[in-house]
Amino acid sequence: MGGVILVLSGPSGCGKSSLINEVLQKNDDIYFSISTTTREIRDGEKEGVDYYYISKEQFQKEIEEGLFLEWAEVHGNFYGTSVKPIENALKNGKLVIFDIDVQGHEIVKKRYSCILTSLFITTPNKDILKQRLIKRETDSTSAIDKRIENAKIEMQRIEEYDYLLVNDDFKVTLDNFEAVVKVARLKQDLSEVKEFRRHW
Ligand code: 5GP
Fold first, then answer.
1. What is the Cα–Cα distance from 61 to 158, expressed in whole angstroms?
2. N or C: less crowded end of the chain, CB within 10 Å?
């Protein structure tokens, strides 16, 4: 059986990374797509774990060489998904998790629609998002305002996703996230239904 894809989008600070880390620890058939970015590395982040950090010039070069499955500019920085590791992971039957924005979701969905499940995660309201970003102490006040404005724009596109999770209580959100991970795996049965029917 081939692999499947789960795309997660939502405002930075809504808890996506914590949810992904929890399921990665419990499942060895999940591959997390590590993006490449031109943004500064944050305290606590690691090269090759959270992102691959490169210069704008190098990013431009990789676009020209066709190395990205998709890329986008978010909050003034560039972010992209390299195509090769994704195709390898899919070939190896993995559940591939992407943490990408709404623009990236649109592109990946076009290419892999029959094996893709999508989930939008957000906070109960924008004040809670702001408090979480302030508490995280990784962004300046102006960067936080930019992220809130971007979140409002991204929220306009929730309807493009299969599921919506509102991260109020982390434990409840994690339970629901694990349910979506489980159901995302079942997509592969549908994409290979002809083969299954033949053997049946
Ligand atoms: P952050 O700077 O908070 O890590 O990420 C900012 C935003 O960029 C998040 O919404 C995240 O989902 C998005 N993002 C991260 N990697 C990629 C990527 O490879 N492609 C796209 N399109 N968006 C990404």
1. 32
2. C
**Residue 72 CB–ligand 1 contact under 6 Å:** yes
Delimit the domains of the chain by residue range. Answer: 4-199
Q: Which of 107, 103, 35, 46 is nearest to 74 (CA)?
A: 103
Neighbouring C-beta atoms of residue 87, cutoff 10 Å: 13
Q: How far is CA 168 from CA 112, 134, 171, 173, in A?
A: 31, 17, 9, 7
What digits encode the pLDDT tens for the residues 64-73?
A: 999 999 999 9
Q: Decide: 151 in ligand 1 pocket, CB within 6 A.
A: no
pLDDT of residue 190: 66
Q: State the closest ligand 1 atom to the C-alpha of 50, by its place in the atom list counted from 1.
A: 4
| Amino acid in the structure at residue 48 | G
pLDDT in tens, 151-174: 999 999 999 999 999 999 999 999
- Residue 182: enclosing H or E segment and its boundaries? helix 170-185
Report the distance separating Cα 104 and Cα 114, nearest Å. Answer: 17
CA of residue 74 to ligand 1 center, whole Å: 7
Mean of pLDDT over the chain:
94
Instruction: To the nearest 10°, report the CA torsion of 6, 125, 173, 95.
Output: 10
DSSP 178: H
